[in-house]
Design a protein that fits this description.
The complex is a heterodimer of chains A (301) and B (367).
Chain A lengths: L2 H30 L7 H19 L2 H25 L4 H24 L16 E3 L2 E2 H19 L1 H11 L1 H6 L4 H27 L11 H11 L4 H21 L3 E2 L3 E2 L2 H16 L21
Antiparallel strand pairs in A: 1-2, 3-4
Helix pairs in contact in A: 1-5, 1-8, 1-9, 1-10, 2-3, 2-4, 2-8, 2-9, 3-4, 3-8, 5-6, 5-10, 6-8, 9-10, 9-11, 10-11
Chain B lengths: L8 H26 L4 H14 L1 H26 L7 H18 L5 H30 L3 H23 L22 H7 L12 H18 L1 H11 L1 H6 L4 H28 L10 H11 L4 H24 L6 H16 L1 H19 L1
Helix pairs in contact in B: 1-14, 1-15, 2-3, 2-13, 3-8, 3-11, 3-12, 3-13, 4-5, 4-6, 4-11, 4-12, 5-6, 5-11, 8-9, 8-11, 8-13, 9-11, 12-13, 12-14
The chains are: A mainly alpha (301), B mainly alpha (367).
Chain lengths: 301, 367
């Protein structure tokens, strides 16, 4: 294996890890505030569709980004309304959002463009081109979100309160700070980040939207979030690791390793899920979610 | 959950779910309007396609069979306070169990092979649910996350096995060879033909009877047995369960085993009843529909049968509708499923409060 291949693998690992990272950070914000978010996949998908449709309609990738973020935030607010204001089951709401997103994007895409749910191919200014080392601006924005998340969550008053609301909302409430307000702001931040993830897929990486183009990335991001134990820098590591696995699966296809024989691609694809299960089982280290995650806050208790 | 809502039982079990379903259909109608189609003609095609012809009705009942199994699977776990969203993976593994049994025991006669195939499905489905159940019970790993991961693991595993191991050598498609003829569950039209009654041909097969029997058994188990009582106690109050001498860990594992075995019924209907071979993606997302079915049916077998019929109508009618009004693709059914899950599941409190409010006002007016 020479340097050229390593650079190629590193480069594609970075590309593949960016949508995971954005979605993973989205989950981090949401779950740190106590709102479990298994609807990452759905938000990404809606953002990917709205992003591609917007970029096509306005001829600008940035317009696509804006629309993608708006759509993702809107879906996020539905989740917020169900799980914060209505104190509904957050898992159920997440499942609903994933189904809604898969169905709606396909139907609306088909009705608008009549191409089996795809958007027309994007070209020129409708896509994000490379600005540095062949990577688009989105890549750097998402990478920048890691230190920003780390700083805001760990070093600011807002961050402290937000983390507190995910651990012990009653204490935050007693201090006279709005639990609802904090959780809504976390859900909105998560929507923005999922917007980046989805738009990166359809307007940055690919040239247009395909039905179901997220193909489970939202769930890999969820796995990465557990792997990172709900912390920002480890999230970068976990997402890059999963991106690297994905990239090397393409390279290792049909390659024979000494002593093991040919490695099936599926074995590498299974690794993120398998590692998450093992980690959750507490065999290597222990992943403990925020204490109030998934529990609606009831004021008068 | 906060202020106790004073609702009569019939309102709680029938009115609230009915309102949320009606609301879901209104929203779906708005989606149809938004893409420039007429929701009323769409509804007409939907009903005509699913109930208007004998053939359509057969297909509706075929889908209903799938949904009864996955709905019951979600419901049993739900009674134990668990959210099993791994129905897809469990049914996929059940399909593997069926293929292994049927294609390795080809020498057996049908009356032995069919029950063995069903047992294979139940066992493999149960195993794929038992591991997350065990991890939840003994290691505290969250069942939702593990069952999601197990869905993906199952799909990766089945691709590997069908492409590299189980595929028929001459075939280009990732699927096994056909199951032996005596192991195919008879189609309903063949059964009726045997007793001299002619009914239209469809995919509907005898698995429907098995599904209804399973629903009855689940009712007996949950509401009429000691184990079912233990399951419900663990679901509503784990600490009370411990106090009553029930081991929550044991009940969690048992509930997941039952849940996974029930999810296996989807594979029995699809593979032994219709496809007659193991192929990729035969679960087609029905495992998630099971969540909608269970929520709508209030996790009660009767409610689940009714909700399954509704989703059977949607799936069969949706296929016909996509043919008549191509702009409304079958994805519409997924949208409706999603809205029902949102309304009947996550926003349940909204409708309940609404109904409670109306009841309270009526009481005031009468006083």
């Amino acid at each position: 294996m020479d340097i050229g291949i390593l650079v190629t693998i590193f480069d594609s690992a970075l590309r593949l890890s960016i949508p995971l990272l954005a979605a993973c950070l989205a989950g981090l914000w949401s779950e740190r505030s106590g709102v479990v978010d298994i609807g990452l996949e759905g938000k990404m998908l809606v953002a990917a569709f709205a992003g591609a449709a917007g970029a096509y309609a306005f001829g600008s990738a940035w317009a696509g980004l804006l629309l993608g973020i708006l759509a993702s935030v809107a879906i996020g607010l539905v989740h917020g309304f169900a799980s914060i204001s209505q104190r509904g089951n957050q898992i159920v709401s997440g499942v609903a959002i994933n189904m809604l997103a898969a169905g709606l994007t396909a139907i609306v895409g088909n009705a608008w463009y009549g191409q089996g749910g795809r958007t027309p191919p994007l070209e020129g200014d409708q896509r994000f081109g490379g600005v540095l080392f062949g990577h688009s601006a989105l890549v750097y924005v998402v990478l920048l979100a890691v230190p920003v998340t780390w700083f805001v969550l760990g070093r600011t008053r807002f961050g402290l309160r937000l983390r507190a609301v995910g651990e012990n909302p009653a204490a935050v409430d007693t201090a006279g700070i709005s639990v609802t307000g904090l959780r809504y702001s976390a859900v909105i931040i998560a929507g923005v980040l999922c917007g980046f993830a989805g738009v990166y897929l359809s307007v940055g990486q690919a040239a247009g939207f395909l039905p179901n183009m997220t193909t489970g990335r939202g769930f890999i991001a969820l796995a990465a979030l557990i792997f990172a134990k709900w912390r920002a820098w480890p999230a970068l590591g976990a997402c890059f690791l999963f991106g690297l696995l994905d990239a090397s699966a393409n390279q290792l296809q049909g390659l024979s390793l000494p002593g093991i024989g040919e490695v099936p691609v599926q074995a590498i694809q299974a690794l993120p899920y398998l590692m998450t299960v093992i980690l959750l089982a507490g065999v290597i280290g222990k992943a403990i979610p925020p204490r109030a995650a998934g529990i609606p806050y009831v004021k008068e208790r | 959950m906060s202020a106790p809502l004073d609702l009569p039982k019939w309102a709680d079990t029938i009115l609230v779910p009915a309102i949320s379903v009606v609301a879901a259909f209104l929203v779906a109608g708005l989606v149809v309007l938004a893409i420039g189609e007429n929701p009323l003609t769409a509804t007409r095609w939907l009903l005509l396609g699913s109930l208007g012809t004998g053939e359509g009705l057969g297909f509706t009942l075929f889908y209903m069979t799938d949904f009864i199994f996955v709905g019951l699977a979600v419901a049993v776990a739900y009674h134990a306070g668990l959210f099993n969203i791994g129905g897809e993976g469990q049914a996929t593994l059940a399909g593997l169990g069926i293929a292994l049994v049927l294609n390795n025991l080809t020498f057996l006669p049908g009356f032995l092979l069919i029950p063995l195939g069903i047992l294979g499905a139940a066992a493999f489905g149960a195993l794929w649910a038992a591991i997350p159940g065990y991890l939840q019970a003994k290691r505290g790993s969250h069942i939702v996350i593990t069952t999601i991961m197990f869905n993906w693991l199952a799909s990766v595993l089945i691709v590997y096995l069908l492409v590299n191991v189980l595929r028929e050598p001459q075939s280009m498609n990732p699927e096994t060879r056909a199951f032996p003829e005596q192991a195919q569950i008879p189609f309903m039209h063949d059964v009726f033909a045997a007793i001299g009654i002619e009914i239209p041909h469809s995919q509907l097969n005898l698995t429907l009877v098995l599904a209804l029997a399973a629903a009855y058994c689940v009712w007996l188990l949950i509401y009429r047995s000691r184990l079912g009582y233990a399951i419900r106690v663990v679901g509503s109050n784990p600490s009370a369960a411990i106090y009553a001498g029930i081991s929550p860990a044991r009940i969690i594992i048992i509930a997941m085993v039952l849940s996974g075995a029930l999810a296996g019924g989807l594979a029995v209907n699809e593979l032994m009843g219709y496809q007659h071979r193991l192929l990729l993606e035969f679960t087609s997302g029905y495992g998630f529909v099971g969540i909608a079915v269970a929520l709508m049916g209030r996790a009660h077998p009767v409610g689940i049968i009714l909700a399954s019929l509704l989703f059977g109508i949607l799936y069969q009618g949706g296929a016909e509708l996509a043919f008549e009004q191509p702009a409304i693709t079958r994805d519409m059914v997924v949208v409706i499923g999603g809205i029902i899950i949102l309304f009947a599941g996550a926003l349940d409190g909204l409708f309940r409060r609404l109904v409670a409010h109306l009841f309270a006002r009526q009481k005031l007016a009468r006083a």
